[in-house]
Amino acid sequence: MELSVRKEKILGAVVESYIAYGEPIGSKALLSEMGLSVSSATVRNELADLVSKGYLIQPHTSAGRIPSQKGYRYYIDNLFKPQELSERVKAHIDREIFLAADAPEKILAKTAQVLSELSGMAAITTTPSGDDARVHKIRFVVTGRHTGMVVLITSNGMVKSRLFRCEFVLTPELIAMFDRALNESFVGLPLKEISQAYLQTTAAAFGELSLFMTDVLMAILDASKQAMQTTVSVSGATNLLFLPSYDLLSARNVLRFLSDSEKLSQFLNESSKDTKVYIGKESGRFELSDSSVIITRYEIGSRAAGAIALIGPLRADYKTLIPQLEYASKCASDLIGELLEV
Amino acid sequence: MELSVRKEKILGAVVESYIAYGEPIGSKALLSEMGLSVSSATVRNELADLVSKGYLIQPHTSAGRIPSQKGYRYYIDNLFKPQELSERVKAHIDREIFLAADAPEKILAKTAQVLSELSGMAAITTTPSGDDARVHKIRFVVTGRHTGMVVLITSNGMVKSRLFRCEFVLTPELIAMFDRALNESFVGLPLKEISQAYLQTTAAAFGELSLFMTDVLMAILDASKQAMQTTVSVSGATNLLFLPSYDLLSARNVLRFLSDSEKLSQFLNESSKDTKVYIGKESGRFELSDSSVIITRYEIGSRAAGAIALIGPLRADYKTLIPQLEYASKCASDLIGELLEV
DNA sequence: ATTAGCACTCACGCGCTTCGAGTGCTAAAC
DNA sequence: GTTTAGCACTCGAAGCGCGTGAGTGCTAAT
Which residues of chain B lie closer than 8 angstroms to A153, CB-CB? Predict the structure, then answer.
């Protein structure tokens, strides 16, 4: 549905004023906000019309107007202009993320932290899923007499390490044997196929050696499970408690959702490319019906990877947040791409 | 200050009833809770006395009584009896923690998760500090053409790994050289002494090789920093929002405190051995003035290590929580001790 | 289509009242 | 001296009425 130019101007002004001040705005106040040279009565007529069309809400008869979810949607689709990020903010994001140039999950955790601090909302990142990855190689590090570390390197560049402990003494010869035997039988294997059952049959094939293997194999199983799972990192959930838009009840809902990484990763991974904004109920999760989600997906080496998102109140400063999110996403995916050599 | 037997009985009943139901309790209701055969008037006299002595509070003149912080304190010091854990709960804790038999920080994160789920409060764990640790050995794993992983093993058994990327190709020869050179110069070195400055002088000594070293050295610096820091793991902070004792305001305070890992680790590490309970202001942190903290320290191989704590409302079920905390603490420290071979 | 003018609406804050749980006190009983 | 019955009292919670004012909706004129 199309709106007249004047209606758009008024709707935009209501949305931006409400985002800025958090209070319903009336016809007179609106006039001074916009450059429009009409009377307040005209504005009132337009407002009444916007209410009847569902773009605005009046909390009660004699209050000003606030945007409805439909109003926010129209604003985001047609009216808002993303704000250029200042060089200072860009440099800050660059620097912070670059300092965490470690494994992808570390980089993404840091990205979430930076974003949540900048935005004052909650930030969430997910690591690339390794569902379709294969074993690239397996390495061992002896860490003690009876303890060692398995390092699993996957075809998509992820590195997962897992400690293990065994009853016998870990000699270099033993480790070398493990290394040979396991790489022979595992390299190229899809992670999905590494299951408890598979390991048992594999172990049997090693004959005598298999007695020494069980702890190592369990560690590999666990490492491959970890490599397949997407890790979800949430930062700044507490921020939401300090936003006036949230009362105890709605904060509960959102924070509960944020602390359930199962639900969260499912939700974040169901969206497709590009930056998207879900206003309230659009997200399809009742826990988020009073919140908005800004979500973008990043790619590593032109393959879909994970998601980065901001969750906060409907009354969010989309103008600024969207560019911040996109910039941080680019930083993080570039850095990860570099580290994974793709 | 000592209380008469009857006063103790009454105080105990008020505390336990308030913990159970969360509402002020009056003289009549109290009578039916206890087996005491006196009249309500007598109880009223005793209650009045307990109020004037500061053990109880009446929210207003014509309401029942609730425990004051001093009342909780007396209850914990003299009246309460820890409840035996059921075998089911013990087995549950065992199993869950045992499944996470990986690096200490993983085990502790899992411990926090289990505790928060059992208690319905927030659980926090800290890893042992590696402040006085030394380099035990350094290992390398080649993960790609240009990327590798440094594994730092410290004298106290911690294992930290860090990825790095370098411009040149990582050949096995190069890695072997790194291994030799770095272990020669770092083994036995206190982690504290590994600083940017120290590394620069060290690097200089390697002559030509030093050009290849910078990325590796930075990775080592970062790994040693990580090994020295205690990692704080918080789980179940959101639980607090669902407890009737917390309103938005006090929840804000606690959750803000919980999301500041700096403050948190400082707070948790300042307490000494044994299980301790801080009631409200006793903790000395205004953010916790409406909360109670149950904290215990664990040891690894009879050396003080980290802390495990529960944070929740004053109105907490200390009887059950304290044994849970202590049992989980024992599980976690045993398991870590085993993995670190001490 | 726009505007001036005006009656109207409704949340908010304030004070009043009623209700009832639970008290504190007193005087009598043990 | 301690305990108890009895009763007046206190005070928060909930409901009601009222005045205030921001901001509206409507009408009639432009």
Answer: 143-144
Which pairs count as long-range contacts for B83-88, CB under 8 Å and 24+ apart, including other chains? B83/B319, B83/B320, B83/B323, B84/B323, B85/B323, B85/B324, B85/B327
Residue A206: CA count within 13 A, CB half-sphere: 22
Where residue A301 falls among pLDDT bands split at 50, 70, 90?
confident
Note the pLDDT of residue A307.
Answer: 96
Taking the CA of residue A165 and the nearest CA in chain B, the distance in Å comes to: 6
Residue B63: nearest nucleotide (C-alpha to C1'): C22
Structural domains of chain A, with CATH = 5-79 (1.10.10.10), 87-129+230-340 (3.30.450.40), 135-228 (3.30.390.10)
Contact B341 A237 (CB under 8 A): no
The string of pLDDT tens digits covering residues A107-152 is 999 999 999 999 999 999 999 988 889 999 999 999 999 999 999 9
B58 touches strand C (CB under 7 A): yes
Report CA(B41)–C1'(C29) in Å, whole number: 14
Alpha-carbon dihedral sign for residues A277, A283, A288, A289: positive
User: What pLDDT is attached to residue B342?
Assistant: 59
CB contact under 8 A, B141 and A144: no
Between A304 and A146, name the one with better pLDDT: A146
Q: pTM for the complete prediction?
A: 0.92
Helix H or strand E encompassing A165:
strand A159-165
Looking at the DSSP bridge assignments, the partners of residue B165 are B147
CB contact under 8 A, A151 and B144: no
Q: Is the CB of A5 under 7 A from strand C?
A: no
pLDDT in tens, B209-260: 777 788 899 999 999 999 999 999 999 999 999 999 999 989 999 999 999 9
Report the alpha-carbon distance of residue A248 to residue A251 in Å, rounded. Answer: 5
- Distance in Å, residue B47 CA to nucleotide D1 C1': 19
